[in-house]
Design goal:
The protein contains eight helices and no strands. With 208 residues, it is mainly alpha-helical. The longest helix is centred in the middle third of the chain and has 41 residues.
Length: 208
Amino acid sequence: TMPIEYVRRWNRDYLGEDAAGAYSSIIVKFKDRNQIAVFSEWIELPEAKGGPGLRLEDQLGKKFATAIFVIRLLFLIISIAILVIAVINIGHNFYIQVSERRREIGIMRAVGATEMDVRLIMLGEAALIGIVGGLIGVGLAVGLAVGADWYSTNHLPPFPFKPDSWFSFETWIWVSGLMFSTVFCVLGGFLPARRAAKMGPAQALAQN
């Protein structure tokens, strides 16, 4: 690198006055690598569409950003599929619990528990399972992330845009993880809880 005034003076001396205020290329550094793809699309927009109408000399950053976007989209699809399967499994397990706990539910109804009481008990158990499962999941995620970062630092060679950490665990991520696990457990247990609440004392005790 050289002081900009030296470059301007040489451009003026060898290329003319107009070259003193012109630039053949610029280097842009990002604090957030997620903005690379957005910037790459904007930088090549023609001036008629509100862009600068420039050309990217190095396409590596754009390709890297596109690859990261595709990987994140793939993980998002897999995560949604896992959540749907989890809700189905939770609902199935709670239906089995309701069938096995008919006598317990019947006794609760016989001693005065209302439909709402039974429903809240079942949903409370589902929420507790979700919280415990969320804590275990977040703990495993952090452990695996630390291991992956250690492996990357010690065994992967340096390459462009290599991050210090491949993962980001901000506060909203922790909260969202616990919230998702709790909400989806409650959703999975909603219909079984409704079925349990609708059972009358005589019906529940007669089927045991």
